[in-house]
Amino acid sequence: MGRLGLYCSALLLALAQFAVARVRISSLNWLHLIITPTADAGLVGVNYGRVADNLPPPTEVVQLLKSYGIDRVKIFDTDSTVLKALSGTGISVTVTLPNQQLSSAASSSSFATTWVQQNIAAYHPGTRIEAIAVGNEVFVDPNNLTGFLVPAMKNIHDALVNLNLNSSIKVSSPIALSSLGTSYPPSSGSFKPELAGTMASMLEFLRQYGSRLMVNVYPFFAYESNSDKISLDYALFRDAQGIVDPNNGLHYFSLFDAQVDAVFAAMSALNHTDVGLVVTETGWPSMGDQQEIGAGKENAAAYNGNVARRTVGAGGGTPLKPQASLTVYLFALFNENQKPGPTSERNFGLFYPNKEKVYDLPFPVRTEA
């Protein structure tokens, strides 16, 4: 998860002009509510990051996931102990080909085939791998890997085809929201000019093979940087007034939906209204440095609970795409004590390493009587 690159300044400034500051204090207690999925609901999973030296073994993590009814997980590699622990559980898994291997996967089909054989075919279908994230936020990687991305995706997909795995495993790549050059109003969303060619090729690939674009969405960073202008309630799904897109009259009651629709609009600007989205990361830190305004347990509980409830509830789409139910992965399962950066980076977890809850959780996501 990149930090400042996650959110483009154009959206921050423009949203700041329209967001109304009406901060309210809320209780954590509502998170005891059981969330009710509907027929057209989206799905909620978690990111299982492991940048830490004090986490429980994967076998215990799997039991933790099962005890809270979490049936989707995303990992940032293809660690064998994790994939073996997930075998036979029915938990759907998204794995990652690391950025460091993009150039090899792009330039060598034999590398891609070997990688799929060793990291996917060796575990699937016992371990229910449903998607491969080829890289993570490649456009903001300092090693300038953009040119390798789509060729690597194609070679990984071809390897899946050769091994008869392509019907059950999709290929995509998570992008940061900073990939957008224009993002407000949401209907005017567009990708940065220097990324438009790569994004057009990626979207055509995703359309051709029925995959969805992966995007990482963090309202926290927008609020933290502009807390004097952006309403905390708007960032936490509690804004009763919201904002109106002046181009189409659509009403937004959360920054999350505005961010997602800006990506949908950017895709449409490249003539791709036929590709879905999966939010591969979103979350809110339970602790931060003094200047990290908004970080805290209460806000983290409110954000993660509300984004989960919004995802699985009736009408789980967005104002621009009301029928496009989302799959959303909360970031992250654990606090990770070895992540660099400010305090918030080590406090996005739903659980402490001892498996105690950081705050009350919106799980299990199941039907309420």
TrEMBL record:
It comes from Punica granatum (Pomegranate). The keyword Disulfide bond applies. This is glucan endo-1,3-beta-D-glucosidase. GO terms for biological process: carbohydrate metabolic process; defense response. Keywords: Disulfide bond, Glycoprotein, Glycosidase, GPI-anchor, Hydrolase, Lipoprotein, Membrane, Plant defense, Signal. It is a lipid-anchor; GPI-anchor. It is found in: Cell membrane. Transmembrane segments: none annotated. The keyword Lipoprotein applies. One of its GO terms (molecular function) is glucan endo-1,3-beta-D-glucosidase activity. Its EC number is 3.2.1.39. It catalyses: Hydrolysis of (1->3)-beta-D-glucosidic linkages in (1->3)-beta-D-glucans.
